[in-house]
Amino acid sequence: MHEITPDLPAVRPDRKAGPSTGRFNRWHLASGALALLVAVPLMVVFSGWLQPSTEVWSHLAETLLSRLFINTIKLVLGVGLGVVLLGVSLAWLTARCDFPGRRLFDWMLMLPLAIPAYVMAFVAIGLLDFAGPVQSALRDWLGVGNYWFPQIRSTGGVIFVMVLVLYPYVYMLARTAFLTQGRSTLEAAQTLGYGPVGVFWRVALPMARPAIVAGTSLALMETLADFGTVATFNYDTFTTAIYKAWFGFFSLQAASQLASLLLLFVFLSLMTERFTRSRGDYHDTMRSALTTRFSFQGWRGWGITTLLGLFFAIAFIAPFIQLCLWAFAAISEELDARYLGLLYHTLLLGLLAALVTTACALVIGFSRRYQRDRLTALTATIATLGYALPGSVLAVGIMIALTQADNLIHAMLASVGSATTGQILGGSVFALVLAYVIRFMAVAHGPVETGLSRIKRSVPEAARTLGATPRHVLTKIYLPLLRPGLFTAMLLVLVDTMKEMPATLLMRPFGWDTLAVRIYEMTSEGEWERAALPAITLVMVGLLPVILLVRKTLQDR
Amino acid sequence: MDLLLEIDDLHCGYDDHAVVDGLQLHIAPGKLVSLLGPSGCGKTTVLRAIAGFQSVTSGEIRLNGKIVSSPGMLVPPEQRNLGMVFQDYALFPHLTVSENIAFGLRRQTAGSKRQVVDRLLELIGMQGYGKRYPAELSGGQQQRIAVARALAPQPSLLLLDEPFSNLDVELRERLAVDVRELLRSQNATAIFVTHDQHEAFVMGEKIGVMNHGRMLQWDTAFNLYHEPNDRFIADFIGKGSFLRGELVSADCVNTAMGRLSGNRAYPWPKGTPVDILLRPDDVLIVEESPIRCRVTDRAFMGADTLYTLRQEDGVQLLSLMPSRYDYAIGSEVGIELDIDHFILFPPEPVVETVSAG
Question: Domain check: are A189 and A322 in the same one?
Answer without folding.
Answer: yes
